[in-house]
UniProtKB/TrEMBL annotation:
Signal peptide limits: none
Domain annotation VWA-like: ranges: 282-404
Pfam families in alphabetical order: DUF2201, DUF2201_N
Domain Putative metallopeptidase per the UniProt entry, residue ranges: 34-274
Top-level taxonomy: Bacteria, Pseudomonadati, Pseudomonadota, Gammaproteobacteria, Oceanospirillales
InterPro entries from the UniProt entry: Put_metallopeptidase_dom (IPR025154), VWA-like_dom (IPR018698)
Superkingdom of this protein's organism: Bacteria
Record's protein name: Predicted metal-dependent peptidase
Length: 409
């Protein structure tokens, strides 16, 4: 629906001549996709999941994707070389694979867009594609994740770096207001983007797994893309098992197998107990809203795990962009851990819990998060386990990581 404007520009649909241009460039970009299939079969196999849609619309000057379609302005493609057009198509594909589009989550949208563009463009450069001159790329941050680049842009980059423009368009809910009233406004009915939601994110994860299994040229991928893909497709140990192994390994005391653990006697079970110093564990919960669905199953598993220890000192930290709550639980209290009231739902920073416990180091720290937020650059002096949501990613290179399964939430 066309929005009401304070002025009365001419608002029209694409002309017959413009519709013809759209058809011509659609055919040309289909040919570019065939060329990509010959040169980069892995990326091209993923590109086949996107419908190419040419649009002539005042709200779209370059290209954009909603996870199902790639919308592109023919005039934008006309300004690019054949190699750069292929790069733009691959760029949209990897935005979908990486799940960047719904991940702003309280961040500065412009800086987050720059950060995600850098991450994608770095992968494509490593894969030998021709990057357009207008594309965002910070050579000194080669190989850094979008989260690391965002933190740099937010805190260290100069104005010229922060003022760059993205190669493509990430925000598609653009108002006609503010567009030049001296020109006519074109509204193309074919420009009808949808919402990149959790279902689409899951579909792209499945697409990635299928492409990895089917593409014979997978072994010829650049080291960067191969590492990126492996981290998202290789089977992993069940997160529950890894959590238990991690905590038990960090437990500093010796084990004694008698007498039986008292807390299990009421169930008629005579299980050996672990007797030594207290398990001093810190658990940090990302309460920005990104783990809301996963929180109950995580807390339930954590409760089951901690009640198997005779002596526990649990420091539970709830944090979004800052610490919202700190609670200390003992072994006779952890049975009600899964009834914890969650506080927060603001922005995201993974740094405050590490600062909080730096002076009184725990045996280990377990962090439930989606990983999309700034984290300490250097590893702490104690073991860390990142328990990530199904579509989350490890925010830093240090620490151990595991993913919750999507169907458990």
């Amino acid at each position: 629906m066309t929005e009401a404007l304070p002025f009365k520009p001419v608002v029209r649909s694409p002309t017959d001549e413009e519709q013809l241009i759209k058809a011509q460039w659609l055919e040309l970009w289909h040919q570019d996709r065939v060329q990509l299939l010959l040169e980069q079969p892995f990326t091209a196999s993923l590109a086949l999941h996107l419908e190419l849609v040419p649009v002539i619309d005042s709200r779209l000057q370059t290209a954009a994707t909603d996870g199902r379609k790639v919308f592109f302005n023919p005039q934008f493609l006309q300004s690019l070389s054949a190699g750069a057009r292929v790069f733009v198509l691959a760029h949209e594909v990897w935005h979908c694979v990486a799940g960047h589009l719904p991940r702003t989550q309280g961040r500065n949208p412009h800086l987050w867009n720059l950060a995600t563009d850098h991450e994608v463009n770095n992968l494509l450069l490593e894969d030998g594609l021709e990057m357009p001159d207008s594309a965002v790329y910070f050579p000194d941050l080669k190989g850094d994740s979008a989260e690391q680049v965002y933190d740099w842009l937010l805190n260290k980059a100069d104005k010229s770096d922060r003022s760059q423009q993205c190669l493509d368009q990430h925000q598609m809910e653009i108002s006609l207001e503010g567009l030049d009233d001296a020109q006519d406004l074109v509204v193309d009915a074919d420009f009808s983007p949808g919402q990149f939601d959790a279902q689409i994110s899951q579909e792209w994860q499945e697409n990635l797994v299928a492409a990895t299994q089917a593409c014979r040229q997978y072994g010829q991928l650049s080291a960067g893309i191969k590492k990126w893909v492996k981290g998202r497709t290789q089977p992993q140990v069940r997160w529950q098992d890894l959590l238990r192994q991690f905590v038990q390994r960090c437990y500093g005391g010796s084990r004694q197998w008698s007498p039986p653990a008292r807390r299990h006697l009421y169930r008629g079970l005579y299980l050996p107990s672990t007797r030594s110093q207290s398990l001093r564990i810190c658990v940090a919960l990302d309460t920005s809203g990104s783990t809301t669905r996963e929180m109950p199953v995580f807390l339930s598993e954590l409760t089951s795990l901690l009640t198997s220890f005779d002596r526990v000192e649990l420091t539970l930290i709830q944090c979004d962009s800052e610490i919202q709550s700190i609670q200390v639980w003992r072994e006779d209290q952890v049975a009600s851990l899964d009834k914890t009231e969650i506080q927060g739902f603001g922005g995201t920073s993974l740094i405050p819990p590490f600062e909080e416990v730096a002076s009184d180091k725990p045996d280990c720290l377990v962090y439930l998060t989606d990983g999309y937020g700034p984290a300490p650059e250097a590893a702490p002096d104690f073991p860390v386990l990142w328990v990530l949501t199904a579509d989350g990613r490890q925010p830093v290179s240090w620490g151990q990581a595991t993913h919750l399964q999507a169907d458990e939430a």
